[in-house]
Amino acid sequence: MSSELIGELGQVGLTIGQGPVSNNSSTTVSNSNDENSPERKRQNVNVRPYNQSSRPVNRKRFRTAWLMFDIFKDWLRPHPSPELANCIVCNRVIKAGKSELEKHAAGKRHLTMLKEMNSSGNTGAADTRYARGEVVVLHEEMVGVQEFDSAYDESGGAVSVSSGGESSYKEDYDRKFGDSNKGTTGAAGGTGGAQSVDNSEGNYTTGIYTPQQRNVGPPVQMVTKAVVMNPAPNWKATAIVNGHVTRLDLSDYVGRYLVLVFYPQDFSKICASEINALSDRSYEFRSIQTEIVACSVDSHLAHLTWSKISRADGGVNLPKIPLIADPTHTIAKAYGVLLPDKGHTLRAHFIIDKRGILRHMSVTDTLVGRGTDELFRLVKALQYVDEVEEPVPADWNQQNE
């Protein structure tokens, strides 16, 4: 007997050993509606509705009727996934929950773009772009998916983003570029047109560039006092000089050129290579009236420990240049090189002339070590300009004079 019929008739009890069921048999039918009866409790436990899942059902699905609402009809369009929806005004994919859609409709950016679209009469163009599948930029409300800005490349193609089970990078590439790039080789596989980024992993056809996403944090607000051709920000700090703890001041270097070098942290392989390279050539800089000072956010005790470690073990072995301690980040903030989320500085250097004026500044990624030869050439070029009061061309070298 089916579970539906049992649910309609109640609990059916059969006595073992009885023959065929007849009107006089001991088959009993209980039509009790008492929810607390043992039979009803046993029925509720043992009988499960068809295809019932133990997980809660997601009710946030797209409803076609929403397209007739005044708040949605001008911009809302369905998405292939029933749990998502398209906004043809913002070129975004958003979650299909009614509350999410109402929140998006009240957004300042959305209202501004909707007003511009209505005033210019470009609703038809937006629908055409939607029909072509170009409304593919993800909204920040989509959980677990990285947001990409809605943008167009120089040729006017939309930047599309696919995630997981949606169209792959190669499918987007073939669909958007067609046969125009057949036989083209190289890192990008062609020029112009739309680019597509696929967050899923996989091996793609040779010649199609697969971008590697690097973890990028939120924008960092930096305020720097270091401006070229202006006085360099003053500083006073504890430093390690020839294995001894002392105090240094920017004013100590008035009358000589100074190269202020920032490096991320002590006990780093790249930083050790830089400090050792600058230390080995410090006599060359001193021969042209220039001093080098290296600074990091480490304490003077960390500097002292690092300076006593041999180069073979990753140390700097009593460098011939001072190591400034900036544990409070005061100097790093003044020169605008601090990474607050990392707690250390970028790799940078500043050239300060004998009057205390900042003449050159360079800030690079922490993963790339600086070139000592180029730093030496820049100091000599600035000194030559001060001497002759004439500009110098690109790749200038005093040996060529």
UniProtKB/TrEMBL annotation:
Entry keywords, A to Z: Antioxidant, Oxidoreductase, Peroxidase, Redox-active center
Would I find Protein transport among this entry's keywords?
no
Domain of life, per the record?
Eukaryota
Read off the SUPFAM superfamilies from this record: Thioredoxin-like
Q: How far does the signal peptide extend, from start to end residue?
A: none
Q: Oxidoreductase as a keyword?
A: yes
Q: Which reaction does it catalyse?
A: a hydroperoxide + [thioredoxin]-dithiol = an alcohol + [thioredoxin]-disulfide + H2O
Q: Ranges of Low complexity compositional bias?
A: 21-33, 155-167
Q: Which residues form the Thioredoxin domain?
A: 226-384
Q: Which Pfam families match?
A: AhpC-TSA
Sequence ranges of Basic and acidic residues compositional bias: 168-179
Transmembrane regions: none
Q: What class of enzyme is it?
A: oxidoreductase
Q: What is its EC number?
A: 1.11.1.24
Q: Which GO terms describe its biological process?
A: cell redox homeostasis; cellular response to stress; hydrogen peroxide catabolic process; response to oxidative stress
A molecular function (GO) term:
thioredoxin peroxidase activity
Output compositional bias ranges, type Polar residues: 44-56, 196-215
Gene3D superfamilies found in the cross-reference section: Glutaredoxin (3.40.30.10)
Q: Where is this region: Disordered?
A: 16-56, 155-215
Q: Which PANTHER family match?
A: PEROXIREDOXIN 4, THIOREDOXIN PEROXIDASE
Family indicated by similarity: Belongs to the peroxiredoxin family. AhpC/Prx1 subfamily.
Task: Give the protein's recorded name.
Answer: thioredoxin-dependent peroxiredoxin
